[in-house]
UniProtKB/TrEMBL annotation:
Lineage top rank: taxon: Bacteria
SUPFAM superfamilies (alphabetical): FAD/NAD(P)-binding domain
Alphabetized InterPro entries for the sequence: FAD-bd, FAD/NAD-bd_sf, UbiH/COQ6, UbiH/COQ6_monooxygenase
Family listed: Belongs to the UbiH/COQ6 family.
Name of the protein in its database record: 2-octaprenylphenol hydroxylase
Pathway(s) served: Cofactor biosynthesis; ubiquinone biosynthesis
Cofactors required: FAD
Pfam families reported for this sequence: FAD_binding_3
PANTHER family per UniProt: UBIQUINONE BIOSYNTHESIS MONOOXYGENASE COQ6, MITOCHONDRIAL
Keywords (A to Z) from UniProt: FAD, Flavoprotein, Monooxygenase, Oxidoreductase
Length: 395
């Protein structure tokens, strides 16, 4: 099969699907290449292995795309505060929505639920073609970009968007260099229930081996993010449910009581990645294909949605003016608006990782100073408002 469209998007995850939907609603013909469709919204479990803590900016983007109400109806759970403390420092820092006149700091949702809601709306759109396949390669020439799929189909377009994740095939095929840093740490994610109620809050404890975080979800369930040295990953994942719950209770300091139920869990090594540029000839990267960060602040998909917004703004400004939307001038504007923002967040996350991840005695006074400053009300209000109002260029 051969098909002509305006834009091909490789990767139908949360970020790629949001780009597809926005472009389609503006009148573009879009093809989305994804191995398989997500489940129906009603088939997604309320607490899955992979979740995202969405900021207000991300929620507004999803509302603009017409899917936020569906997500609220499926039990998107608000978190109203975040409690942060460290083993070797007295007290804690609390980021509270009420302190800045807000009802919540955001919502925690399963990634597959967000993807499913976007796909339900996207595939209903006459301007979207879903191709359940993988990219084999592509060629660019004066007339456009020709995308060859593994199944043999060919898609002809003016622009190719790589939204295919951290191991992006599009990025590799476009020969876009990548800077990467391995932290020597791993994350275990999953779903747990605690003895004590989570109080619609997120709880994060910094230990000598790394942070342990619980993100509030419905029915007193919490999404777990447990960071530990990479060499311990396989051993911890091999524990049965009872032993895992005991180890996690100890690692969390028992702040929420015992871990009395453990669901499915998974682990992965932590790597920071940043493409040296976000575009090549008729090719552009968004989301994890362009950058990944240390996940301790849960900003990954929020940065990806900001990428999606800015890319759509720049591309549609040209498209609606009947000007070429695939040219370097357009794609460079997107890169200028997003690259330094993403780099700033990466560096901030690296700073926290450096400060708290290694139990060196000379760092303790620095940790005490940071935690003390964080307990000052103006500081917490400023940081809370910054996180809530994150927009392109706000970092």
């Amino acid at each position: 099969m051969s098909r002509i469209v305006d834009t091909v998007i490789v990767g139908g995850g949360m970020v790629g699907a949001s780009v597809a939907l926005r472009l389609a609603e503006a009148g573009m013909q879009v093809a989305v290449v994804e191995r398989e469709p997500p489940p129906a919204i009603e088939d997604v479990a309320p607490c899955e292995v992979r979740v995202s803590a969405l900021t207000h900016a991300s929620e507004q983007w999803l509302e603009q795309l017409g899917v936020w109400k569906a997500l609220l109806a499926q039990g998107a759970h608000p978190f109203r505060a975040m409690h942060v403390w460290a083993d070797d420092v007295d007290g804690e820092v609390v980021f509270d929505a009420a302190s800045v006149g807000e009802d919540n700091l955001g919502h925690v949702l399963p990634n597959r639920l967000i993807q499913a809601a976007l796909w339900a709306r996207m595939t209903d759109h006459a301007n979207v073609t879903a191709c359940f396949d993988s990219i084999e390669g592509f060629e660019t020439e004066a007339s456009g970009v020709h995308v060859v799929l593994e199944g043999g189909d060919v898609l002809h377009a003016q622009l190719l968007v790589g939204a295919d994740g951290a191991f992006s095939r599009v990025r590799q095929l476009a020969n876009i260099p990548l800077d990467a840093h391995e932290y020597g740490e791993a994350a275990i994610v999953g779903c747990v229930r605690t003895e004590r109620p989570h109080q619609d809050a997120c709880w994060q404890r910094y230990t000598a081996e790394g942070p342990v975080a619980f993100l509030a979800m419905q029915d007193n369930l919490s999404s777990l993010a447990w960071y530990l040295p990479q060499h311990k990953l396989d051993w911890v994942l091999s524990l049965d449910d009872e032993a895992f719950a005991e180890a996690l209770t100890e690692a969390s300091g028992g702040r929420l009581g015992r871990i009395d139920w453990v669901g499915e869990r998974a682990g992965f090594p932590l790597v920071r990645r940043h493409a040296q540029r976000y575009h090549a000839e008729r090719v552009v990267l968004v989301g994890d294909a362009a950058h990944t960060i240390h996940p301790q602040a849960g900003q990954g998909v929020n940065l990806g949605f900001l990428d999606a917004q800015v890319l759509c703004e720049e591309v549609l400004t040209a498209f609606e003016a009947k000007a070429p939307f695939w040219v370097p001038a357009v794609l460079s504007r997107y890169q200028r608006r997003r690259y330094m923002d993403n780099l700033a967040v990466q560096r901030a996350m690296d700073g926290f990782e450096w400060l708290f991840a290694h139990d060196l005695p000379w760092k303790r006074p620095l940790r005490q100073l940071v935690m003390l400053a964080g307990r000052l009300r103006p500081a917490t209000q400023t940081l809370t408002r910054l996180a809530l109002d994150a927009r392109p260029g706000s970092y």
